[in-house]
């Protein structure tokens, strides 16, 4: 295939547009855990155009270019990576944005690109006999994803934080919780891998018109379900950046506090309630689910956050971060797994 300016083919050069886009989506996934579906549409269209362009170049080149350099890698990319992305999304292993990112990569990078910069050639590790680049990106991303918990454990160990959850999280002050994405790794019974999703917590607080500081100031009051607002506020989707009326500590207040949270009834000092914290009422009232949160998980999380100064959370590193790292590694080096083994 003809190189452009001794750097790479025109389709391969255009594919580099994906690098800043994936960098941006990785950043957005870290900051908000939300990536708009519209970002993938232009990349998908670009990938389809470049796929046809590559096919025409390979057909024109003759020899093995059509079969071994284009047709087989493309068939593997579309026939293997696409189903893997779909199945992992179907079974809950990937989020929607993660699956869409892999689908885009399968179309955009079916074959190994080649770039030359002076005497250097990239990827430096070369290719296999039948190289499917999207699969290389995927395996690189998986290896990066495996390395992240090890790095996290080393970080915790160096700080003297030895705990069963040191591979998946770290401790933070309760004041950071309203602005943090992730999952609580504590229950009243101790450390746990199945704690409250912090987006679900924000949904609950916004629904009640409270802040976490309000809850901590008078937890016994807000355990009483009679203090639920007569007209709950929109819970939003729990994102830190959701368009709501902000309060200093991260909650919302749609109306006057005395109206939003009525005084508890005279017998509210009873030790047991039918629906502590109004967890059942919240989950029944909202449209849809709060990221799979159960009333018990919500109650346990509120009990912990109402009293503890520091709590363990898991940031739940978004998979788009390893995907971006896997893409960059693949473009510069190649296949981490095969390069290491062979």
Task: State Rg.
Answer: 25 Å
Q: Which stretches are poorly predicted, pLDDT < 50 over at least 5 residues?
A: 1-5, 246-261, 264-270
Structural category: mainly alpha
CATH architecture of the largest domain: Up-down Bundle
What is the chains' assembly state?
single chain
Please describe the biggest sheet, giving its number of strands, its sense, and whether it closes into a barrel: 3 strands, antiparallel
CATH class of the largest domain: Mainly Alpha
User: What is the strand content?
Assistant: 5-15%
> Cα distance, first to last residue?
27 Å
Q: Kindly state the mean pLDDT as a whole number?
A: 85
**How many domain regions?**
2
Topology-level CATH name of the largest domain? Four Helix Bundle (Hemerythrin (Met), subunit A)
Subcellular location: Cell membrane
Keywords: Cell membrane, Membrane, Transmembrane, Transmembrane helix
GO molecular function: aspartic-type endopeptidase activity
Pfam families: Arc_PepC_II, Peptidase_A24
Summarize it.
With about 350 residues, this protein is mainly alpha-helical. It has helices at about 10-15, 20-30, 40-60, 65-90, 95-110, 135-160, 200-210, 210-215, 220-225, 255-260, 280-285, 295-305, 320-330, 335-340; strands at about 115, 120, 170-175, 185, 185, 190, 310-315.
In terms of topology, how is this protein built?
Blueprint: H1 10-15, H2 18-32, H3 40-61, H4 67-90, H5 96-108, E1 115-117, E2 120-122, H6 133-158, E3 170-173, E4 183-184, E5 186-187, E6 190-191, H7 198-208, H8 212-217, H9 219-223, H10 257-260, H11 279-285, H12 295-305, E7 310-314, H13 320-332, H14 336-341
Antiparallel strand pairs: 1-2, 3-7, 4-7, 5-6
Helix pairs in contact: 2-13, 3-5, 4-5, 4-6, 5-6, 6-13
């Amino acid at each position: 295939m003809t190189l452009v300016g001794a750097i790479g083919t025109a389709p391969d050069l255009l594919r580099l547009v994906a690098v800043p886009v994936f960098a941006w989506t990785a950043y957005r996934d870290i900051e908000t855990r939300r990536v708009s579906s519209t970002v993938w549409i232009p990349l998908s269209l670009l990938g389809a155009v470049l796929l046809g362009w590559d096919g025409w170049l390979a057909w024109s080149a003759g020899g093995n270019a059509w079969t071994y350099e284009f047709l087989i890698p493309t068939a593997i990319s579309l026939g293997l990576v696409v189903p893997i992305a779909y199945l992992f999304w179907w079974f809950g292993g990937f989020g929607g944005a993660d699956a869409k990112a892999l689908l885009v990569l399968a179309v955009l990078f079916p074959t190994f690109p080649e770039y030359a910069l002076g005497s250097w050639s990239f990827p430096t590790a070369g290719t296999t006999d039948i190289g499917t680049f999207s699969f290389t990106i995927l395996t690189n991303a998986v290896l990066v994803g495996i390395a992240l918990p090890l790095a996290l454990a080393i970080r915790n160990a160096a700080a003297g934080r030895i705990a069963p959850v040191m591979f998946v999280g770290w401790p933070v002050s309760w004041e950071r919780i309203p602005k943090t994405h992730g999952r609580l790794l504590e229950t009243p019974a101790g450390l746990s891998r199945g704690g409250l999703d912090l987006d679900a917590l924000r949904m609950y607080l916004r629904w009640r018109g409270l802040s976490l500081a309000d809850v901590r100031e008078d937890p016994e009051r807000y355990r009483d379900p009679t203090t639920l607002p007569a007209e709950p506020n929109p819970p939003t989707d729990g994102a830190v950046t959701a368009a709501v009326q902000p309060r200093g500590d991260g909650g919302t207040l749609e109306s006057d506090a005395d109206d939003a949270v009525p005084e508890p009834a005279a017998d509210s000092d009873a030790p047991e309630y039918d629906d502590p914290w109004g967890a059942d009422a919240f989950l029944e009232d909202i449209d849809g689910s709060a990221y799979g949160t159960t009333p018990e998980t919500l109650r346990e999380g509120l009990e912990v956050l109402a009293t503890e100064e520091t709590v363990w959370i898991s940031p739940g590193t978004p998979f788009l971060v390893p995907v971006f790292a896997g893409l960059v590694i693949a473009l510069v080096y190649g296949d981490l797994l095969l390069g290491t083994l062979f």
